[in-house]
C-alpha cells in the first residue's frame, strides 16, 4: 500500500537517492538511528506529511527549510518527532512493573530505608511509562510507607515531552490503566478533541522531572545515579555501535545492585558490561 502511494507521487515529492543518503547519515551520526533502505518509504511519507502541512511543494524545499533556515527551530523539532517512533502505552510489558514492586522491599533494605529511589525512564516518549511508574511506586507506599522516589523522564523529542508534561490522554490511550487507578490518579476533562483524562495526583507529579536528552550524546547531563533504569523500545532503533555505547553510558549511571529494564526485543547480552541477566529484558548491575 505504502509503495503504491509512493509510485503515485510526482518525482519532486519523492525522496531522491541523495536525500535519502544524506538523511540516513545525518540521523545516524546525530541520534544513532539506524535508517536501512527498507525505511525509505516510511521516511518519505513522514516528510510528505510535514511538507503538506507547511504547503511546501517539494521535499527539497522542505529539507532546505529544516536544515538551512534560521527560523526553522520549531519545524526541526517536528521533523525529529516525525522521524522517530513514539508508540507507547500505559503498563506496557506489565510483568516488569510487577517485578519491580516485588523486589522493592529487599532492595530498599539493602540500600537503606531512607534512600530515595531514583528511576530513569530513558526514551519516555509521551509520558505513559513515567506515569505508570509513578502510580506503581505510589501504590507500593501502602505497604512501604517509608518509600520515597523520584522519576526522571527524558526523550529527544520535544513535542512528545510537551505531551508528557501535560499528562493528558485520550480514552483509547488510557485503556490499559486499571479502573481503580484511573479514578484515583486522573481527572476527566472535556477537550476540543473529545473526552480525555488528565494525570492529576500532585504528590506524584512533584516527584517527576522531564527533560530533553539525546542518548547519542557522549555525556549525559543528569543530576544523579539511578536505582532503576527503564530504557524500553528505544535502543532497537539504534545502529549496533550506538546501542552498545548507550548501554555502556546507562550502566555507568546505574547504582551497583540497581536494575536495567529493556524492551521485549532488546538485549544487553553479548556485551562486557557489569550486568547479571535476571530474566530476558531485566538485568542487575554487579
Ligand atoms: C517507541 S518509543 C518508546 C517509549 C517507551 N519507552 C515505551 O517503551 O513505551 C521510543 C522513544 O525513543 C526516543 N528516541 C529515539 N532516539 C532517541 C535518542 N537518540 N535519544 C533519546 N531518545 C530517543 C523517541 O523519541 C521515542 O519517544
UniProtKB/TrEMBL annotation:
EC number(s) per entry: 2.1.1.80
An example molecular function term from Gene Ontology annotations: protein-glutamate O-methyltransferase activity
PROSITE patterns: CHER (PS50123)
Domain CheR-type methyltransferase stretches: 8-286
CDD domains (UniProt xref): AdoMet_MTases (cd02440)
Protein's UniProt keywords contain Electron transport: no
This protein's name: protein-glutamate O-methyltransferase
Amino acid at each position: 500500500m505504502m509503495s503504491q502511494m509512493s509510485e503515485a507521487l510526482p518525482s519532486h515529492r519523492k525522496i531522491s537517492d541523495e536525500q535519502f543518503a544524506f538523511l540516513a547519515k545525518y540521523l545516524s551520526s546525530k541520534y544513532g538511528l539506524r535508517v536501512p533502505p527498507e525505511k525509505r518509504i516510511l521516511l518519505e511519507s513522514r516528510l510528505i506529511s510535514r511538507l503538506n502541512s507547511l504547503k511546501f511543494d517539494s521535499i527539497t524545499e522542505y529539507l532546505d527549510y529544516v536544515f538551512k533556515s534560521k527560523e526553522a527551530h520549531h519545524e526541526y523539532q517536528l521533523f525529529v518527532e516525525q522521524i522517530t517512533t513514539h508508540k507507547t502505552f500505559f503498563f506496557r510489558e506489565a510483568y516488569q512493573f510487577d517485578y519491580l514492586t516485588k523486589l522493592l522491599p529487599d532492595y530498599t533494605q539493602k540500600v537503606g530505608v531512607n534512600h530515595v529511589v531514583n528511576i530513569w525512564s530513558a526514551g519516555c516518549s509521551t509520558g505513559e511509562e513515567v506515569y505508570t511508574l509513578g502510580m506503581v511506586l505510589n501504590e507500593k507506599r501502602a505497604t512501604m510507607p517509608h518509600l520515597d522516589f523520584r522519576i526522571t523522564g527524558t526523550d529527544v523529542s520535544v513535542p512528545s515531552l510537551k505531551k508528557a508534561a501535560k499528562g493528558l490522554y485520550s480514552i483509547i490511550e488510557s485503556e490499559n490503566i486499571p479502573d481503580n487507578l484511573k479514578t484515583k490518579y486522573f481527572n476527566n476533562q472535556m477537550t476540543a478533541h473529545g473526552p480525555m483524562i488528565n494525570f492529576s495526583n500532585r504528590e506524584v507529579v512533584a516527584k517527576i522531572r522531564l527533560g530533553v536528552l539525546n542518548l547519542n550524546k557522549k555525556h549525559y547531563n543528569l543530576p544523579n545515579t539511578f536505582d532503576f533504569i527503564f530504557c524500553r523500545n528505544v535502543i532497537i532503533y539504534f545502529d549496533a555501535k550506538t546501542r552498545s555505547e548507550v548501554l555502556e553510558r546507562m550502566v555507568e549511571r546505574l547504582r551497583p545492585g540497581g536494575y536495567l529494564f529493556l524492551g521485549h526485543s532488546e538485549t544487553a547480552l553479548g556485551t562486557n558490561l557489569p550486568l547479571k541477566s535476571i530474566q530476558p529484558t531485566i538485568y542487575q548491575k554487579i
